[in-house]
Amino acid sequence: MNESFNDLIDQENDNKVDWDEVVGKSPKYIEINKFQFFLVILILVFGFLVIQNSILGMWKDGDQ
């Protein structure tokens, strides 16, 4: 999974700036940022699902 995820990121970045040159950091630092970005997305999705569940739960309680 990690390899395919990195391939996807590389495809996305083909037309973008070379961040290694811009930031001046090592590729390992960039990899850590990709991982943190992935974690943030997971947390946001999870939080959205929890909020959606509580809203749907309130609607069900209101109907009864």
Overview of the molecule:
The chain is mainly alpha-helical. The protein has one domain (2-63). It contains three helices and no strands. It has helices at residues 2-12, 19-23, 27-63. The longest helix is centred in the C-terminal third of the chain and has 37 residues, at 27-63. The termini are far apart. The model has no long low-confidence stretch (mean pLDDT 72).
Q: Secondary-structure blueprint of this entry?
A:
Layout: H1 2-12, H2 19-23, H3 27-63
Largest sheet: none
**Secondary structure: number of strands:** 0
**Radius of gyration from the alpha-carbon trace, in angstroms:** 19 Å
What order do the SSEs take from the amino end to the carboxyl end, as H and E?
Answer: HHH
Strand content: under 5%
**For this entry, what is the oligomeric state of its chains?**
single chain
Keywords:
mainly alpha; single chain; 64 residues; 3 helices
Structure summarized in a few sentences:
The protein has 3 helices and no strands. By secondary structure, the chain is mainly α. It is elongated and about 55 Å long.
